[in-house]
Write a structure and sequence with these properties.
6-stranded parallel beta barrel, 5% helix
């Protein structure tokens, strides 16, 4: 029995150590090489020694923006003072966009990405963007890395042919422009948009799916304003394809097998199932069921989702959104701000940071980490070598089984140990 107990504690220590290594954000050496940033968002910096914040000894050997108050903080290490400004909640800023036939101009600098490149390294940081033959996206963040908004940058809309709506959309060559005055357009059976082809839909266009049709996008599918896609069918993004959809397509499933970009902006969709896509952006979207896996960067902004399943996504940022049932698993890392979740489950070495967010029921399983700051959680269960950090958070009931929890200036109504 003693041997079993020893093995259990050894296994527990190893797993907790592994979790810390996997989920740590930034590691700095100590001594003369110690460099602390002047601005800190939702990040963790390992100092690996005792230090003070605002004159009080800090309980951890790492500095974490999620576990201290926003504002200007004095950090003292080895008698040396550092001034660090902490901000883990973005301001709600209005992004103004001016367009011309060849450029986009913003009132705030944005990171500009070519979604074909599977990297979070932007092409530029600029207020002015020249249009290219390919779509681009702009990601707006504050100085602390907090997400503000995102926008789609249309490609050059030149050399477009008007698509005749008298015949069903079948083999598409070149780039075709669909006019609302010639709607409805029809899709029958399976249609392929190859890499150098595209469909550009004018605002007000109606597309009718027939016989559970499927449109595979390896090129581009872009709406210039709200459209309607009627009937049951599938929009599938593949290879280096890009999809930008605005409008009502509730009976159309949106899927991907790789692909560069899926951007659902003000779209109403019944079911999305996206895998291995470079960038996925859900903005002002209303989605019943969303399953997203292996995506390089996922941004959810001002959206409502009934069922959300996220797996193996390294960068996930959710702001001002609501979800009923949410699962975040398999080494995913998420930041959630100013949102509401009815049921949230985090598992399998994933890390979730929640700021100013309300959660009815949260379960942290199998080596996962949940950090909450200025949150309200009705019921929290931490199990299977998981860790919970709560800073200035109200928890009505906390249950822990073979797990750790840290309460920093937080209030808990009831603690249950099993």
């Amino acid at each position: 029995m003693k041997k079993l107990r020893t093995n259990f504690h050894l296994t527990s220590a190893i797993l907790f150590a592994l979790i810390s290594v996997i989920t740590s954000s930034v590691v700095f050496a100590t001594g003369e090489l110690l460099k602390l940033p002047s601005k800190l968002g939702v990040e963790r910096i390992y100092i690996n020694k005792t230090f003070k914040i605002d004159g009080k000894t800090y309980q951890f050997i790492f500095l974490d923006g999620m576990l201290i108050d926003d504002g200007t903080r004095k950090v003292t290490v080895d008698g040396k003072d550092y001034s660090i400004e902490v901000k883990t909640l973005p301001n709600k800023e209005t992004i103004e966009i001016a367009t011309s036939p060849y450029t986009y101009t913003f009132n705030k600098e944005a990171k500009i990405f070519n979604p074909v490149n599977r990297s979070l390294k932007p092409l530029s940081l600029s207020k002015d963007v020249k249009l290219t033959d390919s779509p681009q996206i702009a990601i707006f963040q504050d100085e602390f890395g907090n997400l503000l908004d995102a926008t789609f940058i249309f490609p050059l809309l030149e050399k477009l042919d008007i698509l005749d709506s008298q015949l069903p959309i079948t083999n598409v060559t070149g780039r075709k422009f669909l006019l609302s005055s010639r709607s409805p357009y029809r899709i029958l059976s399976k249609v392929l948009l190859t890499e150098k082809t595209g469909l550009i839909l004018e605002e007000g266009v109606t597309i009718m799916n027939a016989l559970n049709s499927e449109l595979t996008v390896k090129g581009t599918f872009i709406t210039t304003g709200p459209v309607s896609i009627l009937g049951s069918g599938t929009l599938n993004v593949s290879d280096t394809g890009s999809l930008y959809l605005k409008g009502d397509a509730f009976n159309t499933n949106v899927t991907s097998d790789r692909g560069s970009l899926v951007f659902l902006d003000g779209a109403k969709i019944n079911d999305i199932n996206l895998s291995m896509t470079n960038f996925v952006i859900l903005r002002n979207a209303d989605i019943k069921k969303a399953s997203i896996s292996g995506v390089y960067a996922l941004y959810i902004i001002n959206s409502n989702i009934e069922s959300l399943n996220i797996q193996n996504c390294g960068t996930v940022i959710i702001i001002r959104s609501n979800a009923i049932s949410t699962t975040i698993s398999t080494l995913s890392r998420a930041i959630i701000q100013n949102s509401y979740f009815d049921n949230l489950q985090v598992s399998d070495l994933s890390e979730v940071n929640t700021v100013n967010t309300n959660v009815n029921s949260a379960s942290i399983l199998r080596g996962a980490i949940l950090k909450s700051k200025n949150c309200q959680i009705n019921s929290l269960s931490v199990e299977d070598y998981s860790i919970s950090y709560a800073f200035k958070t109200r928890i009505n009931q906390l249950k822990h089984i073979n797990a750790k929890y840290h309460l920093i200036e937080s209030k808990v109504g009831k603690i249950i140990a099993q």
